[in-house]
Each structure stands twice: as C-alpha cells, then as structure tokens.
C-alpha cells in the first residue's frame, strides 16, 4: 500500500508541476497582452495628439501612461528581466521631456520607441518556434 | 545586499527541496542523467542568485521543470528495462573468467591505468587476482576476486556467525529519540536508571547513546 502511495505521490507531483507551469504560462501571456495593450493605447493617443499639435492633451496622456505604468511595473518586474523595465522607464522619461519642450520630431520618435519597447514584451513571451529557438 | 541575501536563501531552499525529492544517492552512484540534472539545477539557481536583474521565477521554473522531467525519466526507467538500457546504459564486463575483454575496454574508452587505479582502491593490487570485473552504468567498478583470493568468511570455516543488526540510536546531543526506545523495549525511567549507573544524571547531559543487538548500551556524556 505504501509502495503504491509513494508511486502515486511522484506521478501526482509531476502532473501538478506541469499543470502549474502550463496554466501560469498561459495566464502570464494573457496578462502581458492585456497590460501592453492598455499602455500602447495611451502612447498612441499621445502621438496622435502631438501630430495634431495638441501638446496639453499629449502631456495628459503621458500622465495617464505614468499612472498605468506605476501599477503595471510591479507585476512586470516579477516576470521579466529588469532591463526591459529600465528601457521603458528611460524611454518614457525622454518622451515626457521632449513633449514638455515641444520638440515635434524627437517626441514622436521617442514615443514610437516607447511603443516598441512595450509591444516587444508580449511578442517575446509568445509561445513560438522563434522564441523557443 | 539584503535583496541578494533573501534571493540566495529562497533559491537555496528550493534547490534543497528539489534534491530531496529526487532521492538519496551519493555523487559516485548517480546515473549520468541524474548527475547532469544535479549540476544543471545548481547552475540554474546560481544565476538569479547573483544577478538581481533576472527575476527569481526565471530560476524557479527551470528547476521545477528539471525536477518533473527527472522524476518522469526515473519512473520510466523503473518500469521499462528497454528504456533503462537506453537512458542509463548497461554494465560492461571488463574481465570475465580471469580474462581481459580487450574489445570492451576499447568500446568504453577505459584505459588500463584507470582500471588498475580502481582495483587498487578496492585493495586489489594484482590483476591476476580478479575473476570478474564489471564496469557499472554509473561508472563504479564491481570486482569478484578469484576464489583463492577471497577473504575468509565464517561460512568457509563452517561457523555460523552471530546475528547482528545495526545499533539503534537512543540519544543524540541531549535529545531522546522516543520512537527508537520502543524498538529496544526500553522506557525512559529505565534508560535514566542505566545512565545513572554510568554516572550520568540526566538525558540532557548525554552526547550520544545507542544500544546494539546484544542489548549493550554505548553512552558518552557531553564534555561541559
């Protein structure tokens, strides 16, 4: 009876570990997609505002981005390499300053870079052959 | 600095748990795939320990994955002889009937120097004394000496040896092991009486005490 129990324990342990990893992986990817999407929308709104010369609106969008980012940062820091977080932080700081200075080209360029850094995260975490290899 | 300290503790505990689940075997007795897993798990844990930029989860997930794979492979090799031969390999007979199997040495890339060194570790200083030598799948060498070179056993002299079981630990560093008391059919008051006969007033004063299969008590008191 104890032999069967110990064999069963090993099988249950293996299946539990595999299930936890698989489910966590799926949930993590969903979380990244959702949060990246929300952050990207704010960045796009800021870019559109700059193109339409609405600098105040662009600044308020960046303020809204900052608030969302502060909430998202903690979760992303647990799951990602910290240099990814640092990249987004650096790019956001630069974008904010360019917008404050009213620099059209630099603001748009830096906001586009910020958008790439954000979208890079869910793309990097996707379950694809490219990422596995 | 405190961050590194806590991360190290967390990963250390996880590695200990993983190694514990994988089972008890000395390094020299591990199969090749078990040794590979043990080395990889230590390596996987050490990277996030030093680099706080890497999330802890990047160390924990690979460790758990290796643990699951290791348990699965061990289970498969337990159930299937074919799988066991593929995963662990088969023992190779280096010497059979006192004759060296040259082809096996070549196939195993095993030199005579290594072989003679292993024999000397087993207190065999003459290859002519070996009847059978088997290279196990974990790299250990098993040797059967020739009949005339074997150690004499009580059976050879037609003597029936006395039954002997391992001594049972009763007290370690002042702590009484209650479960073991039942095995030797002793109770605490009786044990304390025996200790008093040896000049020890309390169980707490005992460094180590055990009882052998003849009922003889071995006891040593603490120095202070």
Secondary structure blueprint with pairings:
The complex is a heterodimer of chains A (133) and B (224).
Chain A: H1 2-51, H2 55-79, H3 82-101, H4 104-125, H5 129-132
Chain B: H1 2-22, H2 32-50, H3 57-79, H4 81-88, E1 92-96, E2 99-100, H5 102-108, H6 112-121, E3 130-135, E4 141-145, E5 168-172, E6 175-176, H7 178-183, H8 188-197, E7 206-211, E8 217-221
Antiparallel strand pairs in B: 1-2, 1-3, 3-4, 5-6, 5-7, 7-8
Helix pairs in contact in B: 1-2, 1-3, 2-3, 3-4
Plain-language structure description:
The complex is a heterodimer of chains A (133) and B (224). Chain A is built from five helices and no strands. Chain A is an all-alpha fold and 133 residues long. The model of chain A has no long low-confidence stretch (mean pLDDT 91). In chain B, the strands form two sheets. A four-stranded antiparallel sheet of chain B has the order 2-1-3-4. A four-stranded antiparallel sheet of chain B has the order 6-5-7-8. In chain B, helix 2 (32-50) packs antiparallel against helix 3 (57-79) and helix 3 packs across helix 4. The longest helix of chain B has 23 residues, at 57-79. Chain B is α+β, with helices and mostly antiparallel strands and 224 residues long. Chain A binds chain B through residues 7, 10-11, 13-14, 17-18, 20-21, 77-83, and chain B through 21, 52-58, 61, 64-65, 67-68, 71-72, 75.
Termini gap of chain A: 44 Å
If you compute it from the alpha carbons, what radius of gyration of chain A comes out, rounded to the nearest whole angstrom? 21 Å
- Please give the radius of gyration of chain B in angstroms: 25 Å
Mean pLDDT of chain A: 91
The portion of residues forming beta strands of chain B comes to 15-25%
* Quaternary structure type: heterodimer
Largest interface: A-B, 16 and 16 residues
Sum up the structure in keywords:
heterodimer; A: 133 residues; mainly alpha; B: 224 residues; alpha+beta; four-stranded antiparallel β-sheet; 8 helices; 8 strands; 46% helix; flat
């Amino acid at each position: 009876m104890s032999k069967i129990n110990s064999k069963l324990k090993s099988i249950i342990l293996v299946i539990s570990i595999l299930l936890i990893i698989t489910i966590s992986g799926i949930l993590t990817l969903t979380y990244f997609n959702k949060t990246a999407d929300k952050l990207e929308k704010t960045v796009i709104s800021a870019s559109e505002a700059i193109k339409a010369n609405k600098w105040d609106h662009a600044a308020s969008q960046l303020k809204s981005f900052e608030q969302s980012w502060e909430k998202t940062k903690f979760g992303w820091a647990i799951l990602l390499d910290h240099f990814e977080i640092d990249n987004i932080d650096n790019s956001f700081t630069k974008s904010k300053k360019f917008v404050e200075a009213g620099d059209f080209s630099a603001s748009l360029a830096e906001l586009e870079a910020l958008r790439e850094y954000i979208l890079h995260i869910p793309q990097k975490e996707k379950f694809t052959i490219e990422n596995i290899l | 600095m405190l961050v590194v300290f806590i991360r190290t503790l967390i990963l250390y505990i996880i590695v200990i748990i993983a190694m514990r689940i994988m089972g008890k075997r000395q390094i020299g007795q591990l199969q090749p795939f078990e040794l590979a897993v043990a080395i990889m798990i230590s390596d996987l844990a050490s990277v996030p320990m030093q680099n706080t930029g890497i999330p802890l989860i990047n160390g924990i997930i690979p460790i758990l994955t290796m643990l699951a794979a290791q348990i699965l492979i061990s289970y498969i090799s337990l159930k299937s002889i074919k799988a066991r031969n593929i995963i662990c390999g088969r023992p190779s007979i280096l010497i059979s009937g006192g004759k060296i199997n040259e082809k096996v040495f070549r196939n195993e890339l095993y030199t005579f120097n290594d072989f003679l060194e292993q024999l000397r570790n087993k207190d065999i200083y003459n290859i002519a004394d070996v009847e059978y030598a088997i290279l196990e799948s974990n790299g250990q060498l098993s040797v059967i000496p020739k009949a005339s070179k074997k150690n004499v056993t009580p059976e050879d002299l037609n003597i029936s040896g006395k039954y002997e079981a391992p001594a049972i630990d009763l007290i370690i560093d002042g702590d009484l092991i209650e479960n073991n008391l039942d095995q030797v059919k002793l109770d605490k008051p009786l044990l304390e009486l025996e200790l008093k006969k040896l000049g020890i007033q309390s169980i707490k004063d005992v460094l180590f005490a055990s009882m052998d299969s003849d009922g003889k008590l071995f006891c040593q008191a603490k120095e202070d």
